[in-house]
Amino acid sequence: MSIIITAFERSPDGGRGLARDTRVRWALEEVGQPYEVRLVSFRAIKEPAHLALHPFGQIPTYEEGDLALFETGAIVFHIAQRHAGLLPVDANARARAITWMFAAVNTIEPPILELGTARLLEGDKPWHNERLPLVEDRVRSRLKQLSARLDDADWLDGAFSAGDLMMVSVLLRLRLSGILDEYPNLAAYLARGEARPAYKRAFAAQLAVNTGKPPTR
Asked: CB atoms < 10 A from the CB of 15, how many?
């Protein structure tokens, strides 16, 4: 059964790897699974055919035979469970890797997304200058905790896992903010994730959609 994911035909970030289909592409590249991509427009994601796959009208979706999934965390978890390479064999280590997946999307990502909203969409609000430092401090608080836990390790818990894939994907959203540079070990952690061959392939494939140039292998 072939795997089909959906992605924007023109990503809002212009192909910088922030669209959430990049996470799914990366996971599939890590486990060596081929996949097809069905490109959709902003209009199409609100139409019945796509809403049947994703009730909230977003991307990506994942189809494999009669299985249809949405939400990147759930999709990456499914891929990691189905194929070797993203979750440890040891039961306890596996459970910890899954915990880091949840931590990435439930604890680290929310304040980062809030920061993006504050900077991009609320700049004209009268309370913007007062609120922005508070939002930035919430991000720094989480990064300080994450930095302390990572310390000088390469990955969050031993070898690279789906937990690292999700965490790196979340931290990518801070690259242009300058905040991540305040935590050198996290900046280096992000760079290690981006240096993985599987990530490079996923990034190139997503970028090619937006530039119209085929990715190089």
From this structure: 20
Q: Determine how β-strand 67-70 pairs with β-strand 36-40.
A: unpaired
Q: Does domain 91-196 have CATH number 1.20.1050.10?
A: yes
Residue 191: helix, strand or coil by DSSP?
helix
Contact call for residues 58 and 70 (beta carbons, < 8 A):
yes
CB 87 within 8 A of CB 94: yes
User: What is the crossing angle of helices 197-211 and 21-30, to 10°?
Assistant: 140
The SS3 assignment for 70 reads strand
Output the pLDDT for position 64. 97
Question: Domain ranges in the chain?
Answer: 3-85+198-211, 91-196
User: Whose structure tokens read 């990366």?
Assistant: 26
What's the mean per-residue pLDDT of the chain? 92
pTM of the predicted structure, to 2 decimals: 0.93
**Smallest Cα–Cα separation from 19: which of 180, 171, 169?**
169
Residue 213 amino acid letter:
K
